[in-house]
Every structure is written in C-alpha cells, then in structure tokens.
Amino acid sequence: MIPKNLADLAPTSEDVTAYDREHFPLYLELIDAIDEGALIDELCTDVLHIDPDADRERAVTCLESHILRARWLEEKDDFKRFMMEYPLT
Predict the structure, then answer these.
(1) To 10 degrees, the CA torsion angle through 16, 28, 69, 50?
(2) Nearest-5° angle of CA 4, CA 42, CA 26?
(3) H, E, C per residue of the chain
(4) pLDDT at 76
C-alpha cells in the first residue's frame, strides 16, 4: 500500500484524528514490519515509500513520528475497533 497524503509528521493530538483513521492501515503495516525485524531503511522504502538515500533526515523523522503514533494508538481502546475495520489478510 502506498500511503496517500503522508505527512512528514504524524499527529500528536491526545485524540484519535481523521489522519489516524485514514492512515491506520499504514500504522498496522509499520507495526507488523517492525515485529518481523525490518530495518530503518526497509521501513522507509517499503512502508513509507520514502527513499532514505535521497533525504535521510526526512525519511527517518517521518518514520519515527509514525512509529510513535502507531504505538500510541496501539495502546488506545479504539485500536481493537479499528482492527475490526481493517482485518489482516
């Protein structure tokens, strides 16, 4: 999945945002790839579709931001509800 409208920084709001809902499949893909042992460059290239060789600072900052948001969302009660909307295949 190529993420649409990927922001350089994920939201930092204390509430789940429209951006979070739109990018929930991306968050799942990040969590899954990390759990499978993917490295930073793989995550940037394969999940975010950002070339870390072309703009490493942007790629890593974007990645870190979205990982933090994915892990934050994973702790929320909404996570299970979102999982039912986006079943893993």
Answers:
(1) -120
(2) 30
(3) CCCCCCCCCCCCCCCCCHHHHHCHHHHHHHHHHHHCCCCHHHHHHHHHCCCCCCCHHHHHHHHHHHHHHHHHHHCCCHHHHHHHHCCCC
(4) 78
Across 72-76, 79-83, 84-88, least confident range? 84-88
User: From residue 74, how far is each of 23, 58, 59, 63, 80 by CA, in Å?
Assistant: 13, 24, 22, 16, 8
pLDDT for position 75: 85
- Confidence tier at 8 by pLDDT (50, 70, 90): very high
Neighbours of 78 (CB within 10 A): 14
How do the domains of the chain map onto residue ranges? 18-85
CA nearest neighbour of 10 among 60, 62, 57, 56: 62
